[in-house]
Amino acid sequence: MKKANFDWQIRSTSPIDSTFKEEMVSQGYSETFAELLWNRNIHTTDDFSQLIKANIDDLHDPFLMHDMDKAVERIQNAIMEGQRILIYGDYDADGITSTSIMLETLEMIGADVHYVLPNRFIHGYGPNKELFAEKINEGIQLIITVDNGVAGNEAIDFANSQGVDVIITDHHEMPPVLPDAYCIVHPRHPDGHYPFGELAGAGVAFKLATALLEEVPLEMLDLVTIGTVADLVSMTGENRNLVKLGLQAIKQTQRLGLLELLKISSVDLQKVDETSIGFSVGPRLNAIGRLGDPNPAVELMTTFDEEVAHQLAEKLNQINDERKQIVQDITSEATALVNPEDAVHLIAAKGWNPGVLGIVAGNILKQTGHPTIILSIDENGVAKGSGRSIEALDLFGMLNTMRSEFTHFGGHAAAIGLTMPAENIPVLRKMMNDYISAEQIDLSKGTSLLIDEVLPLSAINLKFVEELKQLAPFGTDNPAPHFLIEGNINLFKRIGSDQQHVKFSVKNEDSQIDAIGFGFGDESEEIQQPDTRFVGDLEINEWNGQKKVQFRLVDFASDGLQVIDRRAKYTWDQNIEGDRILYLAFQTKSQKYFTKELQKSVTLYDPTITWSDYDQLVVLDCPDQKDLLKEIANEGSFTRIYLYLYSPDEAYLNGLPKRDQFAKLYQFFRKQPRVDIRFKLKVVSNYLRIPEKLLVFMIHVFSELKFVTIDDGVLQMVEAPQNRAFEESEIYQKRIARIDSEEFLLMNDIQTIRNWLKG
Questions:
Q1: Which among 417, 357, 415, 492 is positioned nearest to 151, based on CA atoms?
Q2: Residue 300 in contact with residue 314, Cβ under 8 Å?
Q3: What's the chain's average pLDDT?
Q4: Reading across the β-sheet that carries 112-116, which strands appear in turn?
Q5: What is the CA radius of gyration of the chain?
Q6: CA 118, 119, 125, 127 torsion: positive or negative?
Q7: Band of pLDDT at residue 559, cut at 50, 70 and 90
Q8: Which of 11, 186, 9, 201 lies closest to 91, judged by CA?
Q9: Which one has a higher pLDDT value, 61 or 569?
């Protein structure tokens, strides 16, 4: 069997109201789509109309947000007095776009404005006292934070001591003690009245821009969309409206840096959606802050110089490629350090880039299904890094009970960041394992995956997939619909430069759908098993003007025995993971060959082997009788059987000798009654035109029937042998059985063999 990577949760369903279904159908929608809406708690056509519309007039009044009026007044006064204003952003995509929004806004209203994003390796996250001091010394008289600030008490106290006001605009969780800032603009401030609390940092900056400009800055909707999508905030309410409007705006954008970034990411401008923003634009903006100075990203987003835009886009793309390679390298190194006995993986090493450790932790989490913390240890013995968790474990809650081990610590249930002395790592590892044990937390299920519907292939068509687009943009709290489908695999192949992806089709009696699985290359053997169930999204693949539905694989699982086809020699070097693996050979020569070839301990078949001691069986060669393999499969409780089925003698290919071949060989030995077959075998084979392997078999038959004797490699004809039929030879009968075994096991498809083994 193949266990799913995620914990599948089928969305609860209820019978659809007939009136709602009729109304949706009358509007041209399919019954399948209407039922999906109903199960997503969209129960009236008015609810649906409200969901799909995008209207500027539906954006909330920015002055409902706490301290917005105070912030606007202070900025206006600063402009009138000619004060130098500093925008202090964050080094991620949300921070970059927030900074860009505020920079363009203040420039539009005539401010003397400057900006700075901290370097995560030098300044860390949030307001930095030293960086504040540097900028104040340069003449800054007002600081506006965007996408950070609510936890910057020390730096803000310092600014106050220097007579510099700080306006905080932020969306992160507010600590118990807020900074003594001039004002705090925050959608969830307890003293505010803003109706939607889930704005991204770019959303808050956009609201301040709207208040300052006294109108909605439509030209900045592209920036707020990028920040909102990249920061994974709730894709509901006002965020959903902003992103829908922003995606429309991007298709008409004149922003040179964004156009270059989309171009270099191979994103079609007219097909931009939240997915291309999240997987192409966002990572490139994030990458520069992960590896170094993020400030050029703001210049990219705000420049009016085509050459500068092109150069900076190239730079960000190169940095992103570097980031991907670093992530790949660290992930590989970290994977090798995983202790499968640990409930929570705490992995640390010297020299790892701290900026990418959150991604690495997520990768290890995906591979193992266990919460993971990755730490980099510097030359001073300080360990710093990130952790990611599954739903079963509140990682922040657990580590909050262990704060004494950390120098710095923060985050939430699913993701944390921490700094600690490296010497405390063993203690922390034990404390976490003890905590999981004491609290009896079950980590076996992994992260849950909500499945909207078990969908028959016959219900999937272009119209339905086009209907699903009405539910976009997708994101947190509004996930793309996931569907479970079943069927037989057809036309399977691995694709990509490193064969890391798979492409195949799923079919049943009357329907078929193309499928693609990104990153599933290493699981190709498991995917092709019968009785496999697939979970994924539906999308439209357009090629040469032709549109086809495509199923994008997210997860898969299969029940029962898995029979893995390794009959092609090029597959033998693929690793087999697990502890209870039996490498089985039926012939001594095969045992010797595979011991050397695989560098594994190979067991020669013995009927006394306790098959139940193993959960995986690797059959290295063909048994003389195929039913023996079936008996072994039935006696054991294997989850997987790998079939190499090496045939050194190639009995099936060479077949049985014909009578005239036996006669020809017999006559040859009558004429040459004494032959040293150690040295003359090839000569005899060429002379008689009988393949060597077949010739060896015939000689063995002659020997068994006492037509010849073999002494020290010298074959001698018996002068008056007893007249016996070849069929009397046990060797001959064994070859018949072996040919039958090889024909069945080597020539049939793997599904046929699997069904036979299970039958």
A1: 417
A2: no
A3: 93
A4: 112-116, 84-88, 142-146, 165-169, 183-185
A5: 35
A6: negative
A7: confident
A8: 201
A9: 61
